[in-house]
Each structure stands twice: as structure tokens, then as C-alpha cells.
Amino acid sequence: MTSKIKIVNIEEGMPTAHQAHARLTGELQLARSAGVSVVKLIHGYGSSGVGGDLRIALQASLRQMAVRGEIRECIFGENWRRGDDSAWALVKRFPELKHDSDFDRRNKGITLVVL
pTM of the full predicted structure? Predict the structure, then answer.
């Protein structure tokens, strides 16, 4: 049985925004093929001077993917909390996410992608 949740560290190796976007696209395709429902992306938030660029570029790409229907939705780390309707609805669908180490921490270095 495959896990319905996958963690992908996009910032590993300090990629450029272009490299990170290519990796994001590939990882989402692999996850979809494997029957994964939620991908937790670790992209950093800018403390190194590089993560901020990745975060901005990847979040813009994810917004466009959502508009085009390529992903169902994305929940940015700062919204990954009980008080956010989309986040709470996702936790209700996948109760194991309630135990995610970043839940309710407003971590700008992550984004959850719902496939």
C-alpha cells in the first residue's frame, strides 16, 4: 500500500528557481502516478537568501497549476493551521496530517499540495 502523503525537499542542494520548478513538476507527476494525495513541499523561506526566491517562484507556479486544474489546491505554510478552512478540511480528509510537525506552526518554508 502506498502512502497518501509524500514529503519532498525541494530546497535540498540549493537549486536555482528553474531547477526547483523542474523538480517540482517531476515530483508531482511521480506522486500522482503512485496514488499520492498530498505532497508536502519543503522549499525554505529565505533565511539563506536562496529559499525566499524558491518560495516565491514555487508558490507562484503552484497558484497557476491550481488555476489550470493541474492540482486541486495548495496550502502555504503560513496558512497550515486549525484556523484556516482549507487546512482544516484537508486534516479532516487525512487525519494523520493533524500530527504533521508543521501543523499550527505557520512555517513559511513549506507548502502542502493536494493532487
Answer: 0.90
Q: Which residues pair with 38 in a beta bridge?
A: 5, 114
Q: Please, which residues have CB within 8 angstroms of residue 80's CB and are 6 or more apart in sequence? A: 87, 100, 102, 103, 104, 105, 106, 107, 110, 112
Q: What is the pLDDT of residues 59-101, one digit of tens each?
A: 999 999 999 999 999 999 999 999 999 999 999 999 999 999 9
- Name the strands in the sheet holding 73-76, side by side, starting at the edge strand that comes first in the sequence: 5-9, 38-42, 110-114, 73-76
CATH of domain 5-114: 3.30.1370
Spatial CB neighbours of 81, under 8 Å, sequence gap ≥ 6:
87, 103, 104, 105, 106
The pLDDT > 90 percentage for the chain reads 80
Domain boundaries, the chain: 5-114
**How far apart are the C-alpha atoms of 60 and 70, rounded to whole Å?**
14
Q: Specify which residues 67 forms β-bridges with.
A: none
Residue 4 phi, psi dihedral angles, 5° rounding: -85, -5
Q: Measure the CA–CA gap between 107 and 81, rounded to whole angstroms.
A: 10
